[in-house]
Amino acid sequence: MKATLDCIPCFIRQTLEAARMVSTDPAVHEQIVREVLRWTGEMDLRIPPPVMGQRIHRRLREITGVEDPYRAAKEQSNRMALSLLPELKAMIDTAPDPLITAARLAIAGNVIDMGVNGTVTETDVRRSIQHALEEPFTGDSAGFQQAIANARNILYLADNAGEIVFDRLLIEQLPPGRVTVAVRGAPILNDATLTDARAVGLHEIAEIIDNGSDAPGTVLADCSPEFNRRFAAAGLILAKGQGNFETLNDESRDIFFLFKAKCPVIAAHAGVPVGAQVCMDGGGA
Amino acid sequence: MKATLDCIPCFIRQTLEAARMVSTDPAVHEQIVREVLRWTGEMDLRIPPPVMGQRIHRRLREITGVEDPYRAAKEQSNRMALSLLPELKAMIDTAPDPLITAARLAIAGNVIDMGVNGTVTETDVRRSIQHALEEPFTGDSAGFQQAIANARNILYLADNAGEIVFDRLLIEQLPPGRVTVAVRGAPILNDATLTDARAVGLHEIAEIIDNGSDAPGTVLADCSPEFNRRFAAAGLILAKGQGNFETLNDESRDIFFLFKAKCPVIAAHAGVPVGAQVCMDGGGA
């Protein structure tokens, strides 16, 4: 999907929030905000918003000299989510439909998104879990189950650290031996990388690859040839999070998008209310 | 007070909101947003935020060719507030302390601020009234009463259309014959001008002047010599709204600022929580 004018104040707000997260130096905050004002003043609004996010966070890493500014935040999110794992597992085990309950919980975990909210607490996550279990899917859960049953292999595009623990629970409900999980190729925001996938034990239950890109989404032109090959060869793609929706929703592929609609522009684009938990059959499915 | 980096995403959001309010043409929205991105990218952060607001709205009027884009909105706010007048008068007449109740209501009326919220409904206004009557002042009400009793003449700086009806109720409680009300010198946002002052009958109870400026605040350097003379000669100044606080809070004068702290930057600067109703003794008082 394309960026809109409404994305621009949000880019600026996110830049300032991220700058304050990664540096205590007001001169750094001012420098990056001024640079992003210039970039957005001239930006091509046909790009998906995560492409601008990628540029902003690259520049922040360059200015601060810190390669992975969200490392500590990601580790904390992983720990917090791992501490919830036993009770989440129990919810799934006792559910009448474990696959759908696991999918609901995976969407609930999408609340751990530091592009939208820099300070997600355990209370926020518990509230999101409660919401996910009580509210209906916006989407096609029968189609989702059918697509999974039919797929010869599944490429699961993960989103954020912490959230990846919730993904693990869903992946455990998918047909064993058929799932590959892809994470970002390099640090960007609090998005999960190989380090996070291993930290939450995903390598024990699925093959893990990275996509070769540091965009907070899946910008195929920026991903590695190997990832593109795997993407093309996948029987079914499960894409977690807003960033993957924003960058892949125009692809003609069998994709199910699973995310929490936190942004009004994305919600409008998906045709759902803000706050909806979305399990959406993408273009080609 | 100076602008901060936090003001910048808000400038962009307000620009887009105002552009959509004054024009249905997406090309106009994009043009002004891109211009404001360039301006803010180079802006001097030592200016008070309303100076940027003035520049944005001047440019919007220039691009659209509409001299007073908020005219209809201002008239509607005046009508809505006038319809509340009898019950507001009754609240004051039956209050143990009519002056303080009138001041509380005048602050409640400051919710009608289209720079902060483009769509203020009667429900919002009623909620603000309720809040104003129930919550304590953040400030010095004894000092406020004393300053009014002592002042040989009072210059009342009005803020917005609609809100000016609430101001009228407070002005009716001030010593008769000693009050001059100043409004903006030209249309800017939904700020009150001479047209609004007359529409709500303020000319029947006080002298009305305009300040010669189209800033959404009181930028003395931009105001007329006559207004500056009146400002200097006033025994006491009552300044309504955030814009007047932002532009006058560093003046060494006897000023009481009356406003609802709607913006987190201003609230922090005033040392009050967001949402507080402020009656604050300014620098020189």
What class do helices, strands and sheet pairing of chain A give?
Answer: alpha/beta
Query: In percent terms, what proportion of residues of chain A is strand?
Result: 5-15%
What is the tally of beta strands of chain A?
7
CATH architecture of the largest domain in chain A: 3-Layer(aba) Sandwich
Quickly count the domains of chain A: 2
Order of helices and strands of chain A: HHHHHHEHEHEHEHEHEHE
Strand order of the largest sheet of chain A: 1-7-6-5-2-3-4
Query: Which CATH first-tier class of the largest domain in chain A would you pick?
Result: Alpha Beta
Give the uncertain stretches of chain A in residue-range form: none
The CATH H-level homologous superfamily of the largest domain in chain A: Uncharacterised protein PF01937, DUF89, domain 3
Key attributes of the depicted protein:
homodimer; 285 residues; alpha/beta; Rossmann fold; 2 domains; 7-stranded mixed sheet; 12 helices; 7 strands; globular
Task: Characterize the structure shown.
- The structure is a homodimer of 285-residue chains.
- Chain A is α/β, with parallel strands linked by helices.
- Chain A has two domains: 58 residues; 211 residues, Uncharacterised protein PF01937, DUF89, domain 3 (Rossmann fold), CATH 3.40.50.10880.
- Helix content of chain A is 51%, strand content 11%.
- The first copy, chain A, has a seven-stranded mixed β-sheet with strand order 1-7-6-5-2-3-4, sandwiched between helices.
- In chain A, helix 8 links the parallel strand 2 and strand 3.
- In chain A, helix 4 packs parallel to helix 8, helix 5 runs antiparallel to helix 6 and helix 5 packs antiparallel against helix 8.
- Chain A starts with 6 loop residues before the first helix and ends with a strand.
- Chains A and B meet through helix 1 and helix 2 of A and helix 1 and helix 2 of B.
